[in-house]
Backbone:
């Protein structure tokens, strides 16, 4: 099971893996996404090939919302980059053949190739009895790289809850930022007030000594 006490509210660690995006692959680092909310979700290609397209469709229907919320989607499987590249190409071909005008259903987000199960082990989603089978989980990571929330099922089942949670987090972030700004202004005002008081006091003392 996923342990909230171990994982939540801790910084995301560094993982030595590759990712695929738009048919190209590169070294992956979470630092690239600092400053944005990240939705990290796990899926399987090898054991459940029919499930992932449904998740893509679910995400695609909500892409505009995620874009408006400035959220990054990251999908994790224990496949290699070549399998993931083939999946992207296959997905392009399927949807182009079915609907050559509308290509809204697409894999246009990074696919992480967790072939050594580094991320899966960290989040405790790897099935030791069946190494190719992940538990379905969704992780929300805040702009500071801190793990905020997890859901113990697929992105498809939790899409509304994920969006709601991010909106709540962003609202809280905005309130915190507003409070910090007010505090900063008050401190600045207090410093200015103290300076003016000292200046007035010095002038008064100077006047009395004349």
Residues:
């Amino acid at each position: 099971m996923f342990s909230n006490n171990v994982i939540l509210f801790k910084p995301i660690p560094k993982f030595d893996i590759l990712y695929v995006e738009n048919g190209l692959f590169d070294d992956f680092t979470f630092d690239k996404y600092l400053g944005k909310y990240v939705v990290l979700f796990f899926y399987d290609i090898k054991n459940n090939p029919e499930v992932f397209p449904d998740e893509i469709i679910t995400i695609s229907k909500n892409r505009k919302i995620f874009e408006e919320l400035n959220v990054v989607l990251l999908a994790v499987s224990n496949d290699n980059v070549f399998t993931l590249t083939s999946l992207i190409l296959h997905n392009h071909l399927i949807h182009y053949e079915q609907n050559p005008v509308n290509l809204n259903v697409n894999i246009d987000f990074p696919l992480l190739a967790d072939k050594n199960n580094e991320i899966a082990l960290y989040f405790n989603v790897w099935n030791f009895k069946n190494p190719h089978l992940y538990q379905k989980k969704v992780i929300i990571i805040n702009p500071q790289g801190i793990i905020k929330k997890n859901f113990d099922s697929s992105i498809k089942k939790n899409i509304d809850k994920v969006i709601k949670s991010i909106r709540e987090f962003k609202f809280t972030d905005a309130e915190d930022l507003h409070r910090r700004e007010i505090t900063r202004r008050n401190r600045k005002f207090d410093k200015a007030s103290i300076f003016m008081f000292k200046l007035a006091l010095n002038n008064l003392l100077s006047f009395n000594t004349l």
Summary: The helical segments are 4-7, 51-61, 63-68, 81-98, 118-122, 155-208. The mean pLDDT is 76. The radius of gyration is 25 Å. The chain is about 45% helix and 15% strand.
